[in-house]
Amino acid sequence: MIGSITIGLLALLSLSIPVGIVLFLLGFGVDAFFSPFPLIRGLGNLVWSTSNNATLIAIPFFVLLGEILVRSGVATRTYAALDRWVSWLPGGLIHANIATATLFSATSGSSVATAATVATVAMPQAEKLGYDPKLFSGAIAAGGTLGIMIPPSINLIVYGFLTQTSIPQLFLAGLIPGLALALGFIVITMILCMIRPALGGQRRVFPLAQMLRALLDLIPIILLFAVIVGTIYKGWATPTEAAAVGVAGALAIAAAFGGVNMRMMSEAMLGTIKITAMIMLVVIGASFLNFTLASAGLGRELQDFLTGLGLSPMGLIFVVVLIYIVLGFFIETLSLMVVTIPIIVPLVVAQGFDPIWFGILMIVLIEMALITPPVGLNLYVVQGARQSGTMTEVMLGAIPYALAMLAMAAALIAFPQIALYLPNALR
Fold first, then answer.
1. Fewer Cβ in 10 A, N or C end of the chain?
2. What range defines the domain where residue 64 resides?
């Protein structure tokens, strides 16, 4: 049954059918051929119960927050400000790409939105200043992945919802690995550009007065992050309430910079509707598929298979990591999460592993999937913003950063406290 479902999933995805529809079709197929009784009669109740959850309301709020910041011009101001502070490093403006992605990851919660934001703002500068198109594009694609690790993360909200794990604890757990990855990307860029200076283009040093004035454009975003995350950690607000406060804060920042008008608001609302609808279709479709898979006994079959391998707990983790790396080549990241979590997480937790730690490990592997072909979404987002060159250039440029993510996954396995230190310290 596992083989049949995997082949069916890959076959449907290869037809370019939307992922949410693919999940429903697979659910219908499992129901028809493997389920002992018809489950489609309960589809309406399942769709309602899955979508009628207060935790999921945080998703459209965080999407809207990111849309407002992007469409009001705040992203452009932030990028220019970071350019003043980091372009003196070997690699120059590439560091501004990574730093901007890190900062927007701390507000938007979406990887694709972060990559699209930075790519739109940064790409016009690449050719003008003589940067290597491969490394420049790859850094943007990789930096965008931080959107699902650094809190507030939509993917962590979905993980917490599906596993009934504390979302504030997950946000805490993602902070150190997310910042460490951002720092790792910067270090890798510096090393590559010191070995081959032509990759880094022009290094620029700005007067101190300009750097200090640029802080005025950074302070509002930093304060917004502090308000959103701080209210959650202090227990003053749930993630949903904090997201609503974040939207109000984003509107205030946009208004202060003169970026609020009817056109901007209508575009932001339309973008939010499209992205939220896509996410919810995937979540609901995956819930239906997981329901049918559980009825058909796939979870028990997979558990028997892994148990039959006679693996140690650490051996199981390495097999799970390999599964996510392979599936990440072919399956869109949110879909990969919601399809596998109900099956994999219980097996991992039964071996004594912390579900919060595993959630962060999974997110690192999901980040890799965002920049590995043929389905790496961030690769397509960046290539779309380039409007020139080949997809191969973006793929090659992302390789060093994918290796950094693999190293982070190994570090999390070897030293779980990288993810668990903050949750345990503030629990």
1. C
2. 2-425
**pTM above the 0.85 mark?**
no
Number of domains in the chain: 1
How far is residue 29's CA from residue 220's CA, in Å, rounded to a whole number?
50
Both structure tokens of 268? 């932001």
Task: Read off the pLDDT band of 299 (50, 70, 90).
Answer: low
**Is 5:289 a contact under the CB 8 Å cutoff?**
no
Q: How far apart are CA 209 and CA 204, in angstroms?
A: 15
**HEC profile of 118-148:** HHHHHHHHHHHCCCCHHHHHHHHHHHHHHHH
Round to whole Å and give the CA distance between 146 and 148: 5
Q: How far apart are CA 281 and CA 294, in angstroms?
A: 20
Q: For 184, what's the count of Cα atoms within 13 Å in the CB-facing half-sphere?
A: 19
pLDDT exceeds 60 at position 399 = yes
Backbone angles phi, psi at 290, to 5 degrees: -65, -35
Query: For residues 306 and 308, what is the distance between their CA atoms, to the nearest angstrom?
Result: 5
What number of CA atoms fall less than 13 Å from residue 394's CA on the CB side? 29
Residue 387 in tokens:
């409007």
> Largest alpha-carbon pair distance within the chain?
72
